[in-house]
């Protein structure tokens, strides 16, 4: 099936959300992408770690314990994390102040190593993320999956979104849209599916000037169960 034009997609989302004004209120603001390059690299390790621990777990519990995570792991200082011997990592994984999951704790050092190795290329990891082109965001997902630990699937993309990197997300509604329009078949994370989805978002971005984040939300609003509405006291 031919890819739907942005105007048609936008109009359907507006109709489902009560009009253009209401829809625009629901679209997130555009993040300052230049600011991404000024974030300390420890904030990237923190974001990756939080999403790794939130994956398959109650997000609220991770949030409640996050202050202790920061304290136990030296504020996610890259050099200090990499200097930890294995026995120290095991002791920290058993600390009752955090969520005790040694396999997930091990990703902290592994992802610190990924960040450190990128720093050896003459720039910060933050600059590396900031400079990655949005028209190949799936390439950045693949990089995190290959060089990081437990950053495949939606974990890496959700961490990027939390940091402010412009990216679409493969939510259930976004997946449902592409399947309903016969644009993808088979696995969602296959190279063919991801390439098709990236191409669709690239075209919509060219037509609309919206960010990938806004477009991702728009596709969900045009497809999903329509739970999110703007109330009078929210406007």
TrEMBL record:
InterPro entries: Adenine_glyco, DNA-3mA_glycosylase, DNA_glycosylase
GO molecular function, one term: DNA-3-methyladenine glycosylase activity
GO BP of this protein: base-excision repair
One Pfam family here: Adenine_glyco
Protein name in the entry: DNA-3-methyladenine glycosylase I
Coiled coil residues, start to end: none
SUPFAM superfamilies per UniProt: DNA-glycosylase
């Amino acid at each position: 099936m031919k890819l739907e034009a942005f105007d048609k997609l936008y109009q359907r989302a507006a109709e489902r959300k009560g009009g253009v004004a209401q829809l625009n209120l629901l679209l997130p603001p555009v993040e300052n992408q230049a600011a991404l390059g000024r974030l300390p690299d420890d904030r990237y390790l923190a974001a990756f770690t939080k999403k790794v621990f939130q994956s398959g777990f109650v997000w609220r519990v991770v949030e409640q314990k996050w202050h202790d995570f920061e304290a136990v792991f030296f504020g996610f200082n890259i050099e200090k994390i990499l200097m930890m011997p294995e026995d120290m990592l095991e002791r920290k994984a058993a600390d009752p102040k955090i969520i005790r999951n040694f396999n997930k704790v091990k990703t902290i050092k592994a992802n610190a190593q990924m960040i450190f190795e990128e720093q050896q290329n003459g720039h910060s990891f933050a600059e590396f993320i900031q400079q990655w082109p949005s028209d190949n965001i799936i390439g950045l997902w693949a990089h995190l999956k290959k060089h990081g630990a437990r950053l495949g699937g939606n974990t890496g993309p959700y961490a990027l979104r939390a940091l402010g990197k412009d990216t679409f997300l493969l939510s259930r509604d976004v997946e449902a849209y592409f399947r309903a329009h016969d644009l993808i078949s088979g696995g969602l994370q296959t190279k063919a599916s991801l390439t098709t989805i990236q191409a669709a978002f690239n075209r919509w971005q060219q037509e609309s000037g919206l960010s990938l984040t806004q477009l991702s939300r728009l596709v969900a609003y045009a497809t999903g169960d329509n739970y999110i509405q703007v109330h009078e006291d929210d406007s």
